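Re: the request from the purification team.
They wanted to know what the chain is likely to look like in 3D before they choose a buffer screen. I agreed to run a prediction and write the result into the notebook, where they can find it.
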Amino acid sequence: MISQNLSRRFIQSQKMKHFAEPPTTSPPRTNLLDETDLALVNALQAAPRASWTLVGQALGISAVTAARRWERLRSSGLAWVTAYGGPFVQQVNCAAFVEVDCVPSQVPAVTERLVHDPRITGIEHVSGGTDLFLTVMVADLTALSRLAVDAIGAQEGVTATRSMIATHLFAEGSRWDLRSLDPGQRGLLRPADGTAPTAAATLAPEDRPLLLALGKDGRLGYGELAELTGMSESTVRRRVTRLLREGSLVPRCEIAHGVSGFPVFVHYLANVPSADLARVGASIAAASEVRLCAAIAAGHSLLITAWVRSVPDTRRLEAHLAERFPELTIEDRRLTLANPKRMGHLLDAEGRNTGFVPMDMWA
């Protein structure tokens, strides 16, 4: 009961902050980041909670310079660190992707209403046979039904929904990076792998406030987390350390796609024979362009999401996949036209972080 009260208190405080913020006009388009900025983001992609001393050592700059540069990027919405639940979400709870068809003139209004739902972690306006592509995390299949029917399907302007349930994640966004570091820098930040996360790793109810708080800022210190959650600092340190070690908590450094050098997103819906799915999915997941590769329970067996440099690159990547994996049949593809929400964070047209809605699958 205490942990539930802490979770509700944190969510309400964040919602009040979000709705209290007056509308702002997006700043002019930002120039590409310099090489040190990109290396800094890449360092935090490799080790999202690394100390500034370690980051500075890897990049050849002082800890003060690293921290100052990061604060500039973070405060301008160009980069940020988030965190979310690990493999237990699709093994114990439910991770899914929902396609939403809308009356064309209602797409902005539907998006604006859905963007505040804590169970919908991502929203994309896409090309192809649907209008909105949602990423959702919910407690179970019954909760997914309620979300699809009562929260999404009941919206004025929505004409149809289709759910694709993730049955296995071969890769997800925390493994994608800018490829700005050399092997020596990467090795310093991320030493030889320790124990891999276990399938049994899950999240205790009393840990939920930590997950919600770190979703907004995955680099929050133990003292800050203690203040937000009402736990002691020693308890926070012990629990966060355990969650990271088990893989129950996944931190991830994000970058505004408009300055990433990879501004084009593509989703491929593909079929692979069941006997080949594990092998093909794991191999595709290793491709540098791929951010997500998931086995799904739907009309297709595999969802592949990639970030590339240009629209023509989506065709080149598709041709490469078809040549490399003859057992793979790409049946459909979606290009992202707009991405107003990614892992709980609200984004402007250039992908800059402008706000946050706590990701709460238990809402």
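For the purification team: The chain has a mean pLDDT of 90.
Please add any questions underneath this entry.
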